[in-house]
Amino acid sequence: MTSWQEDLLDVLDQTRSEHEVFRKIEAAARSLGFEHCAYGLRVPLPLSNPQTILLNNYPEAWQDRYVRESYVQIDPTVHHGCRSHAPLLWTSAVFAQAQEFWEDARSFGLRFGWAKACVDGGGVRGMFTLARSADAVGEQELRENEMKMRWLAHVAHGALSRIFTTRQAELIQPNLTAREIEVLKWTADGKTSADISTLLDVSENTVNFHVKNAVFKLQTTNKTAATVRAAMLGLLG
To answer: pTM of the entire structure?
Structure first.
């Protein structure tokens, strides 16, 4: 393992700062020949309006333009990442249906790139991108470096998704009891309160009491929403 990989793993095991993690990822990207990198994460809650978090070292003017023009809605690399985990090499064909966006990006020096989406065990999806202003990414470079690029994408996603989802869970601070978690697990499996009372050998009123407490702690309005939120926060794992 190269020194930058070892250095990155050491930091990822210790830090809870997304900015410190991203600085290490930037350094790793440069060692692979890319001056720019980006990571985007869609935080899973609330499900009706999930928050998107973006970290990148693109030119500030491009960052502003990307947000102002709502380019995320038409960015072909984002659309690809929502459908597939396969790596995507930037080509003219990829951007054929978004020519104006493509020309705009290239005018800011984002001319050649590679991207990969990742999904963790909790279902949190993120996308990692490497980009540069000169020299196309050729077949030989991919043969030599793509495994490292994939490794970096997965490490970036693992570290950054952990930081953001942990932070989100801490903001809610449900502090569920072991029994409340157990009841929600059975609920997630489709069991009714009557089923769960039989499984746990307690009264149905007791099951409903635990459900009511979980709903309150998770700041939801019913047991379905509470179960979904608990699962998305990784509390039922």
So the answer is: 0.75
